[in-house]
Amino acid sequence: MNFLTIHNQQSVPFYDIPEMTYREFLDGNSSFIEGDRDRHCVLYFGIKEDVYLRLICCIADDSTHNINISSTSVKLDAILDSFSATNLAFEKFEREIHENFGIAYIDHPWLKPVRYPVNGFDKSAKMSEYPFFNIEGEELHEVGVGPVHAGIIEPGHFRFICNGEQILHLEIQLGYQHRGVEQLFLNKTKLLQRTILAESIAGDSVIGHTTAFSYLFESLGGIAVGREVLIARTIAQELERIAIHTGDLSAICTDVAYQLGSSVFGRLRTPIINFFQEWCGNRLAKGMIRVGYNPYPLTAELIKRLNEVLNAFEPDFSEMGLEISKLPSILSRFERTGMLANEQLASIGTVGMSARMNAVERDIRVSHPYGVFSELDHEPIIKHHGDVYSRVRIRREEVIQSIAYIRRMIAMISEESASYIPSFKLRSNMFSISLTEGWRGEICHAAITGDNGDLIHYKIKDPSFHNWLALALSVRNNEISDFPVSNKSFDLSYCGHDL
Question: Residues 72-83: pLDDT tens digits?
Answer without folding.
Answer: 999 999 999 999
